[in-house]
Amino acid sequence: MKIAIVGAGLTGLSAAIALKEYANVVVFEKDDVGGLASSYCREYCIEKFYHHCFRGDNALLEMIKKLGLSSKLVWKVARIGYAVGGKVYPLNTPFEILRYPHMSFMDKAKLALFTIRSKRRDYTKADSVSVVDGIRQELGDRLLEKFFMPLLKAKFGESYPEVSYAWLLARVSIRSNRKYSGEELGYLRHGFHQLIERMREDIEIMSKAARIEKNAGWVVNGERFDAVIYTAPLPELDEKIRKAAGVQDVKYQSSVCALIGAKKSITEDIYWTNVDRGIFGAIIEHTHFMPFEDYGEHVIYLASYSSPSGWLFNAKSDELRKLYLKDVARFGLEEKDINWIEIFRAKYSGPIYEKGYLNKITPYRTALKGLYIAGMTSKPNYPERSMNGSIKAGMEVAEVVKADLEV
User: Fold this and answer.
1) Do residues 326 and 289 touch, judged by C-beta distance below 8 A?
2) CA–CA separation, 250 vs 236, rounded Å?
3) Quick one: pLDDT at residue 120?
4) Is the whole-model pTM more than 0.90?
5) C-beta atoms surrounding 386 within 10 Å
6) How many CB atoms neighbour CB 167 within 10 A?
7) Which of 308, 302, 259 is nearest to 278 (CA)?
8) pLDDT (tens digit, 9 = 90+) per residue, 119-164?
9) Cα distance between residue 96 and residue 94, in whole Å
């Protein structure tokens, strides 16, 4: 029994782990193994795009345990902030929130109650409601315009009006494991590249693009397979195959991230700062989460989002470096403070969770016998993509394949 897996991200690797004892599994990956969780290595390794995990990430935590990495898993309270006009305001303790000057006491109370209620709500019921309408109806125009709108525009760009309210409710619910002084997050000390390296052990990975053909069965790069599991972004799947498989079109966004090694930090102790305007929508100071001593310099992400056809994704790296350096200077981080800067991009980093997205979730079985699809558009990644959701999708699609092929 031969099974081809297209894509060596967390979904593809998870499926390969679950199937390798039952079949001859070959994984095809044209880019970096690990996908969005791949790392950039210097004297140390760090993810190209920021990563952390949550206490409820059961599939991810089980994989970490299975691969003998539990001792590396660190849980810490990470402080957050909001930057308005270039000034960063911490928003962690009740006192810090009360002191925040850009929101009335009444709006702060509304936001606190909204956060508490979101933990108990069935967010799928808001799937057909736009995030703008949902916020406006529940929290009012002031909070929409002054607090949420900059975040939505930074996250989704011009596509923000299409986003479902379910996305926001789920994000607040899933990511609200708060302690008194901040939110508790997890990380594999010294990097998630350790997880990727363990996952890929004993798996045959072909470092080339996969050309998939339907020819009295399935052929990938001239080699016959009994089944194909496709885990790469849907737009990269041949359009004829996609249509024959009955897969709905899904709108994707792109990620562009500046990764910086610096002589000094931007804030004193804040891990995640949302930014009200500029080329990047968030500052993630990794060395306010993990020890500075692990890296010997401050490691900082400047995170941006774009459409795959947008100027930001398609701009030249040198141009982007200049723009990021100019924009981050208003936070006191000047070019002389920076040891190095790298630009990383992911053209299809995740779907845009539009209104009615529940009806677009991709089933594991397709209309074409022997072709399976799993990954960002699978149910475990609704309505917010995550490492946990991707691993869960890989494990679930493997069970479907085993049942169908009776392996």
Assistant:
1) no
2) 12
3) 84
4) yes
5) 21
6) 25
7) 302
8) 888 999 999 999 999 999 999 999 999 999 999 988 898 899 999 9
9) 6
- C-alpha to C-alpha distance for 115 and 117, rounded to whole angstroms: 6
CATH of domain 2-51+192-249+361-405: 3.50.50.60
Q: What distance lies between CA 202 and its chain's CA centroid?
A: 26
What sign results for the dihedral spanned by CA atoms 126, 128, 132, 138? Answer: negative
What are the pLDDT digits (tens) for 192-207?
A: 999 999 999 999 999 9
The sign of the CA dihedral 163, 169, 173, 176 is positive
Please list the helix, strand and coil fractions of the chain in percent, rounded to the nearest 5, in that order.
40, 25, 35
Residue 92 in 3-state DSSP?
A: coil
Which tokens hold the place of 114?
A: 């909204």
CA 87 to chain centre: 27
Handedness of CA 347, 350, 353, 356 (dihedral sign): positive
Q: Look at residues 11, 8, 53 and name the one whose alpha carbon lies nearest to residue 26.
A: 8
Which pLDDT score is estimated for 379? 96
| Sheet order of strands, 87-90 included | 87-90, 80-84, 272-275, 282-285, 298-306, 252-262, 338-351
Which secondary structure element, helix H or strand E, spans residue 143, and what is its range? helix 141-143
- Distance (Å, rounded) from C-alpha 32 to C-alpha 45? 14
Tell me if residue 223 falls in helix, strand or coil: strand
Q: Where in the chain is the domain with CATH 3.50.50.60?
A: 2-51+192-249+361-405
Using DSSP's 3-state secondary structure scheme, residue 110 falls into helix
Question: Parallel, antiparallel, or unpaired for β 227-230 and 2-6?
Answer: parallel
CA distance 115 to 349: 27
Q: Is the bond preceding 383 in cis, omega lying within 30 degrees of 0?
A: yes
Any residues with CB less than 8 A from the CB of 149 and at least 6 apart, and which? Answer: none
Contact (CB, 8 A) for 188 and 69: yes
Q: Is the pLDDT of residue 284 over 80?
A: yes
Query: What one-character-per-residue DSSP string does 289-340 give?
Result: TS-GGGTTSEEEEEEEEE-TTSHHHHS-HHHHHHHHHHHHGGGT--GGGEEE
Residue of 381, 346, 351, 404 lying closest to 38 (CA atoms): 346
